Amino acid sequence: MDTSHNQDVGSVPSTPATPGTPGAPLFGGFKSQRSSESNGHRRSSVFNNCRCFSVEAWALEDGNIGSTCSLPPPPVPLVKKVGAEFIGTLILMFASTAVAIVNQKTNGSETLLGVAACAGLTVMVVILATGHISGAHLNPAVTIAFAALKHFPWKQVPMYIGAQVLASICAAFALKGIFNPFMSGGVTVPSCGHGQAFALEFIIGFNLMFVVTAVATDTRAVGELAGIAIGATVMLNVLIAGAASGGSMNPVRSLGPAIAANSYRAIWVYLTAPIVGALCGAGAYSLVKLSENTDGQDKPASTAGSFRR
């Protein structure tokens, strides 16, 4: 439960809001704090101080907000979180698989760049649409990695993964009914050796989770741009591995179409490599992550170009 309302205005929360946290804003929300360059004292944004606004506050003649309402955001019921996770994964699966099927049906007219752009844009819009409800994991590898690093409760992991798997199967069979007999275009199969495919899926899973962990768990990251950052990472990963392994980076991206098309070639690669890569990516960011300052004050930036919350 968020306890930031018990702290002073100038304090920095010791634990950032993370995906799946009941009532948490999208990837930390607007919690940036900066130092005032003109007079040297701390200045807080209205969005940082106020969880809600009262009529009396707006009526103050001096133009200041005055006392603020620091009520914590209401918790999100688990059923709504799981429902949002199902819908978000369904949209992602339908779009990312459909573009691959259309690319096969039209003899490559979409091109690898188009497939990558579609996957990245879909991830971006789904995160913006459902991230504040469920955290928009959309991927069992992400859910497991968050739980392993204690950013997500293990007791909710089966329900999240169940929703993701069910959404994948529903989207795959819907696409099979629409595009049959071109369903094979949506199945991720390696065009290289299984070892090379495993290595690629591991690397792109690492890349994805490294970025996700950064924008979702670090209060110093630019959390408001999480959807853009993660969507761009997905697009980059598909451009890297799409031609060789299919650029899955998500076990349910491969599982649903494999079931619908009854094609399980190298399915073990896509069920294991993304999870191992995500665990390593999340762990790697945790190792290089800057530690929180216990006295509640921002540390001076070590470089002029660093982004700080």
Automatic annotation (TrEMBL):
Bilayer disposition of the protein: Multi-pass membrane protein
SUPFAM superfamilies in the cross-refs: Aquaporin-like
Biased composition (Low complexity): 10-30
Record key words, sorted: Membrane, Repeat, Transmembrane, Transmembrane helix, Transport
Transmembrane segments: 82-102, 114-136, 157-175, 195-216, 228-247, 267-288
GO molecular function: channel activity
Origin: domain of life: Eukaryota
Subcellular location: Membrane
Region (Disordered), start-end ranges: 1-43
Gene3D superfamilies assigned to the protein according to its UniProt record, in alphabetical order: Glycerol uptake facilitator protein (1.20.1080.10)
PROSITE patterns: MIP
Main location: membrane
A single Gene Ontology CC term: membrane
Coiled-coil stretches noted in the UniProt entry, renumbered to this chain: none
Family: Belongs to the MIP/aquaporin (TC 1.A.8) family. NIP (TC 1.A.8.12) subfamily.
Name under which the protein is recorded: Aquaporin
